[in-house]
Design brief:
single chain; 491 residues; mainly alpha; 23 helices
Length: 491
């Protein structure tokens, strides 16, 4: 009986079709709460720089006063993070399958904290690029945390757990823009408190970056003290390095044996499903389909999220709204609250009612009206000025875009279902995160380049919106490749 139970745990798919007779497993709240707290570090550090990023680019002088090039350099600054992440995230996630999730998360938190301090001290565009690259290279936490959430759940409570995943993003997207928008240039904004500080006058964005950096340091302490490892069998890093070196030396000094294709390991027929599979074994149709959808979602979403604050900050006569960083921060904060509350209270219910594919497809389809709203908001602003009509249009646009965020939870569940076994879950997530990081390199830079092109030439003023529409339609098309029910092992 125990042998059959073991086989069921190892060989059954990670997600099964909904079975009404199954009893839902209670969520492990202690571990889940710690994981959600750790997830908070990513939106806090990422969104804290969003309100002042356009002004920071102006201040470092890289545009030489050319307002049309601000969006271009903002896009490059965002993309560098994803370049570094794309080069390292797969290895971090694969490493977590061997040495455990906890050591990898601790390294990522250290990288985030150190890079935020460096970002606040940067006075040149090169310094900004270096700090963002460091943050991306040392941070593989996004995929590792998702793997850890799947480690502690099963098919009966996974959707409920992922329904809480937007909670830290809601909190981070609420607090971080307020921190970044309010604490930038503190000597000018709070002269009584910081007016005499030469340091904060010299580094006007340090305080806005130091807050998220210190919070990440606190998360490191919480992880070290309280987080429990979820990988059942781990290997020390030194043993892993020694074994890899021994394998390389053996390969160099011995003739490779002929491979018998008929008896070689496959994804479904691995002789030991409790061990991580090689990367080549992950190139299955279902993993590629799940990864493609995650990549198209990430490309469209990062392009949209990088466009919104730049659109808000761009002068009205150049196609934007002409808002200052504090007001931009307030808008993003309200959006963060609404988005998080919607995900927490409605995602699990919608998923249970309509299924993963319907929720995902509807989410990516919401990108179409979201894009159409950009030129409409600008025209309303030019006609009526900043007033109730414009704010209603902005609120409607952000409300529609809330459903897009449900797609990440659905995508994570498809990736979990595609994984050949639990021991390869980190590598599977790492593959998806790597591809997503690659497209996120393209997203901000290409979108901001198109926006700068649209701003320079009024004749092509809508070019960026046509570009965004193509990305949305690509994501919608990819969603039709997903199965209506989760994959089974026999597929």
């Amino acid at each position: 009986m125990s042998h059959q139970s073991h086989q069921a745990d190892e060989e059954t798919p990670l997600l099964q079709p909904e079975e009404q007779h199954k009893v839902k497993t209670p969520l492990p709240w202690r571990q889940l709460s710690i994981i959600l707290f750790l997830q908070l570090t990513e939106p806090v550090t990422a969104q804290a720089i969003a309100p002042f990023a356009p002004q920071l680019i102006r201040d470092v002088g890289v545009t030489h006063g050319d307002e049309s090039r601000v969006g271009y350099f903002v896009g490059i600054m965002y993309s560098v993070f994803y370049v570094a992440q794309a080069l390292t995230t797969l290895q971090w996630n694969r490493l977590s399958d061997h040495i455990g999730r906890k050591p990898v998360i601790l390294t990522g938190l250290f990288g985030i904290s150190a890079s935020m301090f460096l970002f606040g001290l940067s006075k040149t565009f090169g310094g900004l690029i270096l700090s963002r690259a460091l943050c991306g290279a040392l941070n593989g936490n996004s995929g590792v945390i998702k793997s850890m959430m799947i480690d502690i759940t099963d098919s009966t409570n996974m959707a409920q757990a992922f329904g809480f995943l937007p909670l830290p993003w809601m909190t981070g997207n609420t607090l971080a823009p307020l921190i970044g928008g309010s604490l930038s240039h503190p000597a000018d904004r709070f002269p009584r408190l910081f007016g005499q500080s030469t340091f904060l006058k010299t580094y006007p964005y340090f305080l806005a970056c130091a807050g998220p950096a210190l919070f990440t340091a606190l998360a490191w302490v919480v992880t070290y003290m309280l987080l429990q490892e979820t990988v059942p069998t781990t290997t020390s890093l030194w043993s892993l390095i020694r074994n890899r070196c021994r394998t390389i030396l053996t390969f160099v000094h011995t003739k490779p044996p002929r491979v018998d294709r008929s008896s070689s390991d496959t994804v479904q027929g691995s002789p030991d499903d409790s061990k991580p599979l090689p990367l080549s074994a992950l190139m299955t149709p279902r993993i590629l389909i799940a990864t493609l959808n995650y990549a198209t979602l990430a490309l469209f979403d990062i392009s949209l999220r990088s466009l919104i604050p730049v659109f808000y900050a761009t002068p009205v006569n150049m196609g934007g709204l002409g808002l200052d960083p504090p007001r931009i921060g307030n808008i993003l904060a309200v959006f963060g609250i609404a988005n998080g509350l919607f995900q927490v209270f409605f995602f699990a219910r919608l998923h249970e009612r309509f299924g993963t594919k319907v929720v995902y497809t509807c989410g990516v389809a919401s990108g179409v009206p979201t894009i159409i709203a950009f030129p409409i908001i600008n025209m309303l602003n030019q006609t009526y000025g900043i007033g109730a009509t414009v704010w209603l249009a902005v609120g409607l646009q952000l409300t529609i875009s809330i459903t897009l965020n449900m797609c990440y939870s659905c995508g994570a569940m498809y990736i979990a279902a595609a994984s050949p076994n639990r021991a390869s879950l980190g590598a599977t997530n790492g593959l998806a995160q790597t591809v997503a990081a690659c497209v996120r390199i393209i997203g901000p830079a290409s979108t901001m380049s198109m926006f700068s092109f649209s701003v320079r030439d009024p004749y092509y003023g809508w070019a960026v919106y046509y570009f965004m529409m193509v990305l949305a339609l690509f994501a919608i098309g990819a969603s039709f490749l997903l199965p209506r029910q989760m994959w089974k092992c026999s597929n």
